[in-house]
Amino acid sequence: MVISPDLPSIPFIMKNGVKYFELIAQPVQREILPGLYINAWGYNGSTPGPTIHVHTGDYVNIRVYNRLPESTSVHWHGLDVPNVMDGAPGMTSSPEIGPGNYFDYQFQVTNPPGTHMYHAHMDAMRQEMMGLQGGLIILEPNELGRIHRDYFLMFQEFHVDKQPMRGYTPGVYDLDPHNMDYNFFTINGRCFPNTKPLEVCTGENVRIRLSNAMETAHPIHLHGHQFYVTASDGNTISPGQRLLKNNILVASGDTWDIEFLANNPGQWPLHCHIPHHMTNNMSKSGGGMMTTVLYR
């Protein structure tokens, strides 16, 4: 089972061999730090949106309701879908979804198992930077026992308006999606120390799926362990070509799968290595785009 810490997984209803999902694009309030809420856009009440789980060969119907004040769409990033289902209006035959309307994205999942994303593909500068993205995982049906822990992480950055020069003040704040002076950096919609640890046990094989649909690249570093890079953009890397690393750059549009053996007990940071991104609005106490691998 793939776990997305601090995020729900979206349920489905099976009808006549088709998996039916519902996504609601809407304004959301997200508590990124204790008492600090952002007025963002997301899906089903969350940014990032809920994680979608499917299998290769599934027929899916994903109904997207638009409760935003402007038209939107959803692009299935990395999936090989029919042109009309791609979610890029104006560049493909896929339609816009007007405010108050919905559209059924219908396709068969033909990609092999891997890590993918979904995100808005209209006025991307505004809609994506307001938080309209989420994870889509094509599950591997026959790997029970090989991977003991499987986590999905999505990285985001925001410019939160009207904050002090350093640190943060609890309250509800608007975002400025056009301001590239980002001051809060999140994993699954939370800033450290508000992120949920990735729990492991000694001897387990652990996979972490890393994803980024926003503006800035993030070099992600794991303390205390070396990891193998096992997949890129949802495509498995053959064992003989895997790199052994402890730091990997997750650029905009990337997904990477990394795997490591939990063989060094303790609590270990997993974080973006850019110093600015390890702060909560330049607070001296640190924070930002960081979580921990925690041995139970």
From TrEMBL:
A Pfam family that the UniProt record links to this protein: Cu-oxidase_3
Occurrences of domain Plastocyanin-like (ranges): 38-142, 170-283
InterPro entries membership: Cu-oxidase-like_N (IPR011707), Cu-oxidase_C (IPR011706), Cu-oxidase_fam (IPR045087), Cupredoxin (IPR008972)
GO terms of molecular function: copper ion binding; oxidoreductase activity
Protein's UniProt name: Putative multicopper oxidase
Species of provenance: Desulfosporosinus acidiphilus (strain DSM 22704 / JCM 16185 / SJ4)
